What does this fold into?
Amino acid sequence: MADLSLDLDVKNQARVHVWYPNRFGYRIRPYQSTEDAIGTWPTTATAIGVRPRGHQVEVYAPFGTEDLFNLVVRPNRVQITPAIYGAKVTRWLARWPSLVALTWEEGVGCSGIRRLDTAPR
It folds into this structure.
């Protein structure tokens, strides 16, 4: 992959619940499947998984691909907090100023479904 100009972010989804509390300050339930994990990823444009299937690839995108191809950053509020989303948007806009970042209220998903604690969001 050294010949590609891509930054890959690879995580073992079966272990995210182990390190998540130390990184984000609250516990989450273990994921039941790869699709379950992808459905909690922080933005609709990044909630996409691709895997080989024979000579083709299989794409799983629970929110579709429209936001990705239109450079729209929309929060998936299922697991993250407004503060986590805000920090992510700030970093991404500094790197890619042509992104269109939507507000927390314009996101998808109901806040707190996956969280184990009941701390205010």
Observations:
- Residues 13-106 form one domain.
- DSSP finds four helices and four strands in the chain.
- The helical segments are 16-24, 34-38, 66-69, 82-95.
- The first strand starts at residue 49 and ends at 53.
